[in-house]
Amino acid sequence: MQSHPEETFRMVKKEADSCTDSCYTGHLQSTLQEPIEVSSSNKDHSHDIGDIDDQSIEDSSKQLVLYDPAANRAGQIEHVPQPTQYQHPFGRYSDPNVPSRVLPSVGAFTIQCAKCFKWRLIPTKKKYEELREHILEEPFFCETARAWRPDISCDDPADITQDGSRLWAIDKPNIAQPPPGWQRLLRIRGEGSTKFADVYYQSPSGKRLRSMVEVQKYLTEHPEYMTCGVTLSQFSFQIPKPLQENYVRKRRAPNISFI
DNA sequence: GCCACCGGTGGC
DNA sequence: GCCACCGGTGGC
């Protein structure tokens, strides 16, 4: 895969007690992770991903975590468990009678320390987005987490590890924070989809936009945003990449027909 | 009728 | 192979 920094994030469900809203974890070489929006839209953040629509799948199979390939190479992070070890995001946890429409959602945001390579949970999506925006120029260290955990250091155990119980994904670094009042939403698709996830931006008025083309058009039609300084550079539709191989279905080879 | 979600594809 | 974009539609 690529050799430059990438982010992965995983969705974490509960378990991350410190995470009050959806969080992802991720890191880049130095680390970063991005927040991903998890679960159903209108839910508040009082629960994280976990409670997606129905009962929750308490397990962590939906956690999304970010990781850094560079660190992987260094052997700091164990490799992704075999696919078979991963549970299908839905399925096994859901009641067979419940049509499982439960999609994985981001349970936690994590970023890897650039020094000790331990994963640190980022308490909020907002914080995660702030850190991600400049992760390349300003690497994350355990000390960075002192802003919300005064005594944390590299000597403390990792907040989370890649143990195969969660879905991890690598986030992209240096994605701009959304403009004030806007939200960047990440929806994870179900396993076997043709795409891992979708990014949407939601304007302050609630309008959802799903591509740069739509953003451009919307801004043109609502010049007040541009007047306030909103620009296209504040938008990015880059999606994280799942660590689990084959989470995304490959494009099928065309059928060969013969006579 | 709306829209969240998924599939497909053109262009690179 | 990846990704940006957008059409279609099932479920509400």
TrEMBL record:
Primary location: nucleus
**Keyword annotations for this protein?**
DNA-binding, Metal-binding, Nucleus, Transcription, Transcription regulation, Zinc, Zinc-finger
Which Pfam family name is an example for this entry? MBD
Q: Molecular function terms in GO for this entry? A: DNA binding; zinc ion binding
The MBD domain covers which part of the protein? Answer: 168-242
The record's subcellular locations are: Nucleus
Q: What is this protein called?
A: METHYL-CPG BINDING PROTEIN MBD
The top of its lineage is: Eukaryota, Viridiplantae, Streptophyta, Embryophyta, Tracheophyta
